[in-house]
């Protein structure tokens, strides 16, 4: 990706950071966008910053550029667009990973018993932001005949019990956006699609399970043995961005494990976690974990 220009929304942490770093490792110039900077914290009140991500991109071999951007604020996104346009005049790869809905999600609660403002907050942060980003930035992707990838949770629309209507609406909505982009952008020479991670070892998930990247195998959830780092999805995206035949995936939402099978990449520890196969062969049928060798799925 030498000479290519990428924009990653929601790149402060998690998948966004992992994707930005791997695009940098492939040689890209990466605009790292999000709300948390060293000078200003977002409502998430997290320690990770866009400057840290940009530095990781540069250390990996690319050129990281941190740009603070709140994707609920149209003027912020327009300023981002104007900066990229002035610097390069195009976006070769747009990764739409903005989220910010964690503060509003009420799991395991029926919609009618939930807080309406919380529900609307999930949708505002998880769907409105994607529409604002796409509406504002897509002209620069069209100018490059580039690639736009929507990042979601899950590769199909079956309802996972317990996540609630707002969360499911957002994540299935992002997959719907990817399907439509696949069709709408094709006449313009642009590929639109979606991706999803498996069981993620993001900063927030590690804290949720009270483990670290050093001892994550000790998490109380035994299925976390099949977890993956955000860099795993990042490597999937980097392969997509460098694939001259990426158009064969337009409109689809593909999982990290599916793309691992296609491209043969590994996670940072050299393993190849296959959450999809684990879920269908172990989780769904309720197989006794004592009878399963985790290594067969990594």
List its salient traits.
298 residues, alpha/beta, Rossmann fold, seven-stranded parallel beta sheet, 9 helices, 7 strands, globular, NAD(P)-bd_dom_sf, SDR family oxidoreductase
Describe the structure.
The chain has helices at 14-25, 50-60, 74-87, 116-144, 165-184, 203-208, 230-241, 256-263, 275-283, and strands at 5-9, 29-34, 63-68, 93-96, 147-151, 191-196, 253-255. The chain is 41% helix and 12% strand. The chain has a seven-stranded parallel β-sheet with strand order 3-2-1-4-5-6-7, sandwiched between helices. It has one domain (5-297): NAD(P)-binding Rossmann-like Domain (Rossmann fold). The chain has 298 residues and is α/β, with parallel strands linked by helices. It has nine helices and seven strands.
CATH class: Alpha Beta
The residue fraction in helices comes out at 40-55%
Number of domains: 1
Strand content: 5-15%
- Count of alpha/pi helices: 9
Give the overall silhouette: globular
Cross-sheet strand order for the largest sheet:
3-2-1-4-5-6-7
- Describe the oligomeric state of these chains in a short phrase: single chain
Question: Which structural class do you get from the secondary structure elements?
Answer: alpha/beta
Low-confidence runs (pLDDT<50, min 5 residues)?
Answer: none
Which whole number gives the mean pLDDT? 96
Distance between the termini: 28 Å
Protein name: SDR family oxidoreductase
Organism: Actinokineospora guangxiensis
InterPro entries: NAD(P)-bd_dom_sf (IPR036291), SDR_fam (IPR002347)
Pfam families: adh_short (PF00106)
